[in-house]
TrEMBL record:
<dbReference type="GO" id="GO:0016616">
    <property type="term" value="F:oxidoreductase activity, acting on the CH-OH group of donors, NAD or NADP as acceptor"/>
</dbReference>
<dbReference type="InterPro" id="IPR036291">
    <property type="entry name" value="NAD(P)-bd_dom_sf"/>
</dbReference>
<dbReference type="Pfam" id="PF00389">
    <property type="entry name" value="2-Hacid_dh"/>
</dbReference>
<dbReference type="InterPro" id="IPR029752">
    <property type="entry name" value="D-isomer_DH_CS1"/>
</dbReference>
<protein>
    <submittedName>
        <fullName>D-3-phosphoglycerate dehydrogenase</fullName>
    </submittedName>
</protein>
<feature type="domain" description="D-isomer specific 2-hydroxyacid dehydrogenase NAD-binding">
    <location>
        <begin position="108"/>
        <end position="294"/>
    </location>
</feature>
<dbReference type="InterPro" id="IPR050418">
    <property type="entry name" value="D-iso_2-hydroxyacid_DH_PdxB"/>
</dbReference>
<keyword id="KW-0560">Oxidoreductase</keyword>
<dbReference type="GO" id="GO:0051287">
    <property type="term" value="F:NAD binding"/>
</dbReference>
<feature type="domain" description="D-isomer specific 2-hydroxyacid dehydrogenase catalytic">
    <location>
        <begin position="12"/>
        <end position="318"/>
    </location>
</feature>
<dbReference type="InterPro" id="IPR006139">
    <property type="entry name" value="D-isomer_2_OHA_DH_cat_dom"/>
</dbReference>
<keyword id="KW-0520">NAD</keyword>
<dbReference type="InterPro" id="IPR006140">
    <property type="entry name" value="D-isomer_DH_NAD-bd"/>
</dbReference>
<comment type="similarity">
    <text>Belongs to the D-isomer specific 2-hydroxyacid dehydrogenase family.</text>
</comment>
<dbReference type="Pfam" id="PF02826">
    <property type="entry name" value="2-Hacid_dh_C"/>
</dbReference>
Length: 320
């Protein structure tokens, strides 16, 4: 019986699917420094991870019994993918299973930022009983998103899910992607009604200059996609959301843009230094913050697990 280690956890339906296919699934959380001896001792043939576990070249070389590495999520930046495939291992992931969950979090930050919910939720518990009228006045200058322009950087499955919600809210939606310059989006409504809308792609600079709000959906980068120059191209009072990867925004430049008032707010679910984001980010009143939970809904985790389990069964049953 092949043994699988789901080191960062796995949804129960996915475990049941793997077990019904004849695999033994272990969900012991093994510390990074103990992972190599554990994998070898327990004869683990497949290692399933999320973002917490690093699957580097050293681990791959030291564990010849591994046949498959699976990432329960979108990015593969915590896995030495090229090295693993060179060694003949299968490397799989679930790029679209969490798309809707991430997209909804984008709008949680966006709508919260335009209506100051991130800040008023900090102040109401402390001052709401004594300063109610003052707080009402302070947060009375919110903005509607209807009719505003939403710029999406990176137009894969998550970017498309964001576009659908934006279009449903009556926003003008545009995107920047190095692989496509136009897209036709199908919006589905209750009762089976569908509408096709064409979305236009732009160069990065033009997208930034025309967008009231910008959201990033790109993989990990060697350098920031958004730095001081790019922030300067955005209209004064714009908002910026990042639910993709830490480091794709220059955080120092972001803080400067917020402090100067050039940006009205930003929403961050990911940080350059995880799990210890900088204190200046955590304390900034113009930042809406969440702890890397974009794909962490019950529905997304079930879809991710089942999709990953299906790939494992398909690939490893052939090798059995």
């Amino acid at each position: 019986m092949m043994r699988i280690l789901a080191n960062d956890g796995l949804a129960e339906p996915a475990i049941a699917k793997l077990e019904s296919a004849g695999f033994e699934v272990l969900t012991t959380k093994v510390a990074q420094e103990q992972l190599i001896p554990y994998l070898n001792k327990e004869n683990i043939r497949a290692l399933l991870v999320r973002s917490a576990t690093q699957v580097n070249e050293e681990l791959i070389d030291a564990c010849p019994g591994l046949l498959l590495i699976g990432r329960a999520g979108v990015g593969l930046d915590n896995i030495a993918v090229a090295h693993a495939r060179k060694k003949g291992l299968h490397v799989i992931h679930t790029p679209n299973a969490s798309a809707n969950s991430v997209a909804e979090l984008v709008f949680a930050h966006l709508l919260g930022g335009t209506r100051f919910l991130h800040e008023s939720n900090r102040h109401m518990p402390l001052e709401g009983d004594q300063q109610f009228r003052a707080l009402k006045k302070a947060y009375a200058a919110g903005r509607e998103v209807r009719g505003k322009t939403l710029g999406i950087i990176g137009f894969g499955g998550i970017g498309e899910a964001v576009a659908r919600i934006g279009l449903g809210l009556g926003m003008e939606v545009c995107f920047h992607d190095t692989h496509r310059d136009r897209a036709v989006m199908t919006l589905e409504f209750a009762g089976g009604q569908q509408y096709d809308l064409e979305i236009q792609g732009f160069g990065l600079d033009e997208l930034l200059s025309r967008s009231d709000f910008v959201t990033l959906h790109v993989p990990a980068q060697d350098r920031p996609v958004i730095g001081s120059r790019e922030l300067g191209l955005m209209p004064r009072g714009a908002g910026l959301i990042n639910t993709s990867r830490g480091g794709v925004i220059d955080e120092e430049a972001l803080l400067a843009a917020l402090d100067s008032g050039h940006l009205s707010f930003a929403g961050l679910d990911v940080f350059a230094e995880e799990p210890r984001p900088g204190v200046r980010l955590l304390m900034n009143p113009d930042l809406s913050l969440s702890p890397h939970i974009g794909g962490s809904t019950l529905e997304a985790q079930e879809r991710i697990g089942l999709e990953l389990a299906g790939q494992v069964v398909e690939l490893l049953k052939k090798a059995d």
